[in-house]
Amino acid sequence: MSHPLYRRLFDDAALFPPGNAPMGEAVPAHREYRSGWRADHVGPFLVADGRVAELRAVLAREEAAPGPLAVAVTVPGGPDGIGSAVESVLADPALRLVGVEAAAAPGAVGAVAGQLTRHLPPGASGFVEVSREGDVHADLDALSGTGHSAKFRTGGLTPGAHPDEAELAAFTAAAVSRALPFKCTAGLHHAVRNTTAEGFEQHGFLNLLVATAAALDGAGTDDLAGILSDRDGAALVDAAARLTPGQAEAVRARFLSFGTCSVVEPLEDLVVLGALVPEARPH
């Protein structure tokens, strides 16, 4: 049985930087994840709207598909591309649309949310990526009450793409205080806060889970920033293990998931830290 804190936490972003996996490799790898011990922890397959046709071509060549592929499509171009992105996925029975993630320019959250409401089919979730360059609090206010969730960028290919612990703490506190679910994208490659070989300060997804729990318990942004900067993996695992099932469920009702170009690496981190024990699935 999977731990409730990590269930469906890892959205498969193998196609995206820095992984950049070829479509013909990423799809069968995702199928394998969803049939092995990682299955309970892996979320949908993420694909950019500009690559849906390529994905459909790869799926058309599958000889014995186990069923429709659950996908979330990203729309980096903003609200105008949402309708066509949805149509491109719904047109193929080999795909099952479970989410749309669209970027919003500063102050344009309402327009993006409106297009998501207009075009999303029943059962699909909408995410609006709020810009780090704008007034994040105002954008989260605009998103509240729309029925859609927030998306926040936590890394990238340059130092400036990585928010520091104070910025991420402020976002987390703001989302939690508004009862607004959120997901993250990029940068959460490992469970624990670390410094990459390139010198990037990289957030840990375990840090963010524990920080979200603290925010739900009323912690201030300074305390959240301290949790986000913690590099003690054993202490973070212990803090996560002390959460009751109800607390873990509340955390995951806020921090929904994050996109990772490697599903394997972050799960291996949890295994090494003793937070997860791989279990064979019956055939």
Write the layout of secondary structure elements.
Blueprint lengths: L9 E3 L10 H11 L8 E7 L3 H9 L8 E7 L6 H9 L4 E9 L5 H11 L5 E5 L6 H8 L5 E5 L11 H13 L4 E4 L8 E2 L5 E2 L2 H12 L4 H8 L4 H9 L3 H10 E6 L3 H9 L11
Parallel strand pairs: 1-2, 1-10, 2-3, 3-4, 4-5, 5-6, 6-7, 7-10
Antiparallel strand pairs: 8-9
Total strands: 10
Largest sheet: 8 strands, parallel, barrel
Number of helices: 11
How would you sum up the global shape? globular
> Distance N terminus to C terminus?
15 Å
**Secondary structure category:** alpha/beta
Written as H for each helix and E for each strand, in order along the chain, the element string is EHEHEHEHEHEHEEEHHHHEH
Poorly predicted runs are none
Average pLDDT number:
95
